[in-house]
Input
Amino acid sequence: MSSTAIFGQGLITAGEIFDGTPRDIAAGNGILYLAQGRHLALLDPATGLRTGNYTSLPYSEQLTAVEFDNTSNKLFVATEKRIYIYNQNNNTHKIWEAPTSAKIIDFKIIPTDSKIIALFDDSVMIVDYSASQTSVFSSFT
Output
């Protein structure tokens, strides 16, 4: 990638940030979360420089999307087949796995209703994450 990006006061090349294809970015608690490749990179919001990865090991699949809910301090990360929900207060996480062979393209959270809308190639699922185990609330094509 030869393009450049401006972050804060400095000009840096995108190669200094990315080690995989960038898919999505979210902001929360003074950090930027960049879904790229099989890693969730942590970026300094003032400089744009990568400060590390959210987890020490890479995810099992390519990341597709990330969101952060500032009201509950929950981080949501989607791979091609799974959605991870991290509670930053106690570092626990929940995993919801897509029940079909389709891959997750994108998702949005509805924190007031504890729902996730997951978008696939040919369908949409609404997932409830309010209980101790996530479950499909609704689906349609």
About this structure: Residues 48 and 134 are 34 Å apart (CA to CA). The chain has a mean pLDDT of 82.
